[in-house]
Give the backbone structure.
Amino acid sequence: MATFLTVLGIESSCDDTAAAVVQRAADGTAGIRSSIAHGQKDLHRDYGGIVPEIAARAHAVRLDSVTQQALDTAKTSLDDIDLIAVTAGPGLIGGLLAGVAFAKGLAAGAGKPFLGVNHLVGHALTARMTHGVAFPYLTLLASGGHCQFLAVRSADSFLRLGGTIDDAPGEAFDKSARLIGLDQPGGPAIEQCARCGNPNRFALPRPLSGRKGCSMSFSGLKTALLQAHTKIQAEGDPTDSDISDLAAGFQQAIVDIFVEKSCAALEMYHQEMGEKPNVFAFCGGVAANQTIRQNLQTLCAHSSVEFVAPPLQYCTDNAAMIAWTGAEIYQPGQSSGFDLKARPRWPLDERNIPPLLGSGRKGPKS
Ligand code: KG4
Ligand code: ZN
């Protein structure tokens, strides 16, 4: 591969300490030389959710060894790195600060340029890194802190078509899993448990169904699941099959919401962009869910739109997408300065449009 740019990526915005080395060739193709992610699941298990202070401290402890591992796996060293790209937001402020400070130190020590990257851009551009998708395209970015439909016009131009007005779907998976006694992160736990469940036993709602546009809502779903669970408990201890049916019902509700609103988003994209998209890319941690992927793939097949979803390790948080984003947006001579600040909130569509989120929104990346 004729190498154009070799980028070291660093990610620490939530509960994964990650580093990666990615190359972008002159023809725009990507080469992922390494991608190391060290999760913090065990550190947060006793607390039922991510504790920001524990996360920040763990990132500070792990960043150097994870980075060394990424360089070693790529069989390279800092000398051969052209750019250091680091997640500067949105996310938990302590973790962001740990990553940004670390990247500044590395850049200063090695005399390399560095660039602050938006984590959401990282998710949204992953389909270009893994599948070479061309601009423009439609993406559904669904993660633990976010959910939005975006027209991706270029690496730095995004049009938000709609998104959640309350919880993010990953957050709904996590909270719902906790309610029915499953492990964290809730997404994979519910997916696994739903395999042998009956998705039709419980009548869970599809909030905002039938409404115009592609806005979504997930918080009522969680409450309905709690009520169904409480009702079962009143009749005795829930059995494994009760829990599987609840998990399957919850997952099916998310599938139905995504399918209906993706249909609306495809139409909105057509109206806004003057043509239908060539590609619908599903990204973010929730895109790791096979059942949701299959259903969106079927929808796209009916609409003659190519469906793309990255390999699972590039759906959930990783540093390869941060390195790739750095490679896409970097212009020599235009790196970040040492005054780069972490931005806990950093919207993708920077037009002055009102937030979609309701007043109750308080996720780490809202
Ligand atoms: O993108 P990500 O790693 O971090 C954020 O940027 O938020 O997404 C993490 C979220 C978690 O809420 C997790 O439960 C969810 O993605 N997730 C899944 C699956 N794997 C991870 N949700 C549904 N099904 C999955 N298989
Ligand atoms: Zn993420």
In short: Residues 40 and 58 are 8 Å apart (CA to CA). The longest helix spans residues 240-273.
